[in-house]
From TrEMBL:
This is uroporphyrinogen-III C-methyltransferase. It comes from the Archaea. Keywords: Methyltransferase, Porphyrin biosynthesis, S-adenosyl-L-methionine, Transferase. Belongs to the precorrin methyltransferase family. One of its GO terms (molecular function) is uroporphyrin-III C-methyltransferase activity. Transmembrane segments: none annotated. Residues 11-222 form the Tetrapyrrole methylase domain. SUPFAM superfamilies: Tetrapyrrole methylase. PANTHER family: S-ADENOSYL-L-METHIONINE-DEPENDENT UROPORPHYRINOGEN III METHYLTRANSFERASE, CHLOROPLASTIC, SIROHEME SYNTHASE-RELATED. Pfam families: TP_methylase (PF00590). InterPro entries: 4pyrrol_Mease, 4pyrrol_Methylase_sf, 4pyrrole_Mease_sub1, 4pyrrole_Mease_sub2, CobA/CysG_C, Siro_Cobalamin_biosynth, Uropor_MeTrfase_CS. It comes from Halorientalis persicus. Homodimer.
Length: 259
């Protein structure tokens, strides 16, 4: 049992910033950003959201594939240190911090170190990114389920925990986050598992950001489409018949027509 005297006087808020458009911040997230003493932010909140935060209170603790990195251990320790100093801390993450955002790990660390915390959900990019590009992740006619998959597992794992064969058998939509770099590998695994090579696929880069890009193709052509357009992380991959819907509506799509 933790003694009351050991409990941090400050509070950490694990806040999801949504897919990047500041208008998609929750009301609570916006209020907490205005009230925070310190904001520890990832690379994934959009530049317009980062720009809302006074420079003197924000700290970049983000990680990016093949780029600069701040260790998770440092971030954990920094949150606890600030809270024990009595600070109100916002730990700001892209999308929702509990969807492949390591929010669960940070929550447990805070609890172990006697830090009061609150979870503030955000609009997940796994749904919002495809949505603004005219791609619903479910559809009554041909997608009664959706599977969310990480394309970037813990590199210390001996074996992958993702069973692409089982995913291919669901008949539903597959949404892959952080999967741009490994696109050739998992599209090949899905084809080898028996998924139709002509299955529609879409890549949505920086969904809702000003520089959003979309690439479309099939399970056998999407890698070339990615390279032709120059899709880079962060991006969401959507695999399934729902990806075809974009072509039916893109002419009238006001917020996601870029490609």
């Amino acid at each position: 049992m933790t003694a009351d005297a050991d409990i941090a006087p400050g509070t950490v808020y694990l806040v999801g910033s949504g897919p990047g458009d500041p208008d998609l911040l929750t009301v609570k997230a916006k209020r907490l950003l205005e009230e925070a003493d310190v904001v520890l932010h990832d690379k994934l909140p959009g530049p317009d959201i980062i720009g809302m935060i006074p420079e003197e209170i924000r700290e970049d603790v983000g990680k990016r594939a093949r780029g600069e990195r701040t260790s998770q251990q440092y971030t954990n320790e920094r949150m606890a240190e600030l809270a024990h100093d009595g600070k109100t801390v916002v730990r700001l993450k892209g999308g929702d911090s509990f969807v492949f955002g390591r929010g669960g790990e940070e929550m447990v660390y805070l609890a172990k170190h006697a830090v009061p915390f609150e979870v503030v959900p955000g609009v997940t990019a796994a749904i919002a990114g495809p949505g603004v590009a005219g791609i619903p992740v479910t559809h009554r006619d041909y997608a009664s389920s959706v599977s969310f998959v990480t394309g970037h597992e813990d590199p210390t794992k001996e074996d992958s925990a993702v069973d692409w064969g089982a995913l291919a058998d669901t008949g539903g939509t597959i949404v892959v986050l952080m999967g741009v770099g490994k696109l050739p590998e998992y599209t090949r695994e899905l084809r080898e598992a028996g998924m139709d090579p002509d299955t529609p696929v879409a890549l949505v880069e920086r969904g809702t950001w000003p520089d959003q890009q979309v690439a479309t193709g099939t399970l056998s052509t999407i890698v070339d489409a990615r390279d032709d357009i120059g899709i880079e992380p962060p991006a969401v991959t959507v695999i399934g018949d729902v990806a075809r819907e974009r072509q039916r509506v893109v002419k009238f799509l006001q917020n996601g027509a870029e490609s």
